[in-house]
Write a structure and sequence with these properties.
Length: 85
Amino acid sequence: MTINSILIAMILALLIPIYEAWQDEDIWQKMLAFASIATKTSIMILVISVLRDDWMIGVVGVIILSVGNAGLMLLAQLIKRMNEV
């Protein structure tokens, strides 16, 4: 399996949560889909940074991986609380 086919498979796996977010109306399902997109994108960034041997790109991938999902989950909790009131 070549590197290009691995990246193409990662991009195809990224399309699944995009379709789910586009189709579903539930806010929690959309937030989970966006969290999945953020995770898959950061893993792709980490793979590319290893292939290019560029640690600055890897740092960006790690920041997205560690902070991105927390922000999405806080936003989803805030939207849920606002809908309850």
